[in-house]
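[audit] Reproducing an earlier prediction to check determinism. Same input, same settings, fresh worker. If the tokens differ from the archived copy the diff job will pick it up downstream; this log only records the rerun itself.
[audit] input (357 residues):
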Amino acid sequence: MAKAIPDFEPFIVYGNDTSSSSIATRWKKWLQRFNNLMVAMDISAKKRKRALLIHLAGSQVYDIFDTFTAEQKGSEDDFDTAVKSLTTYFEPKKNTEYEIYKFRQASQRHDEKLDSYHTRLRHLASTCEFADMDREIKTQIVQTCTSQQLRRKALRTEMTLQQLLDQGRAYELSHQQAQEMENNNTESVNQMKTAPTRNYFSKNFNSQRQGQRQESTKLCYFCSKPYPHPGVCPAKGKTCRLCGKLNHFAVACRSSPQKQQHRHHESDKRQTVKYVNEEIASDNTSEHSESDEYTFMVQDTDENTKHPMVNLRIQNLAKVKFIIDTGATVNLLEEKDFEALKPEITLQHSSINIYPY
């Protein structure tokens, strides 16, 4: 009793999802599945196998087989001739020189493992008709692999293809393990630097000193601001209040070093003051006047103030209550206290400007 033939997918020769370049490979795989089916169904008669081959292969294969000559078709019980004729038909016309060219153009991709590259090369070499395929594959790996370490090893020591692959796998594994260890030991640390509080002159003077000691910090010789400038130097066209010369600020003047040292000494005394005057830099801002003075505050004092107070006697006259201000460059006296003292002093106009810091 004949067995029922199960559904079997036909061979698609032409279609939207097929490629003519892969037709030979696809035919070989389909033929292997067909032979497995014959074994599973215990069909060994060549006449029956030939008939099932032409039937199950589908209408496209049947139309192709129908164009064969009688010699190509063979007799009704000649299964092997039918298979050979169809295989020859689907086998592409091979150009060995072009296949070798494609093999020589291959190179290992950056993200491609050595084993994957070896498999790809072996597939390309299968159509090149090399006399020694392993030797050609080994040469191609040495010349085009991404590992310089493996290439140098192969050039120093004579190796077989298998030895080259083993060495390459060892390098890949050690590189991966080293990366994992290094990534686990790497920590990102955020550092915060604190600097003492300084006023305008102290900040620029000390920045200038640091700029002389550290190559990474550069200050302009004319304005003592960070150099290079985004535009024109703010000191260009300005007159120095110390020497009267053009194109530099007093803070950068070199004609009066003693006076600069004096101001530096005053600024050092103000480093611990909690109140800081904010400097707003601008390209249109000229240098500070050398007649400027700084004080902690300008206001009336009252009994409830939280700032440290002290009673001082002035010129053997009445005592006056002062706020202790170690950072001020001037002493201020309220008008009512001045009148209460009634000193024999004549007040005069002054060009000094007083700023809170």
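[audit] rerun output stored. Observation attached for the diff report: Strands lie at 292-295, 309-313, 319-323, 353-356.
[audit] end
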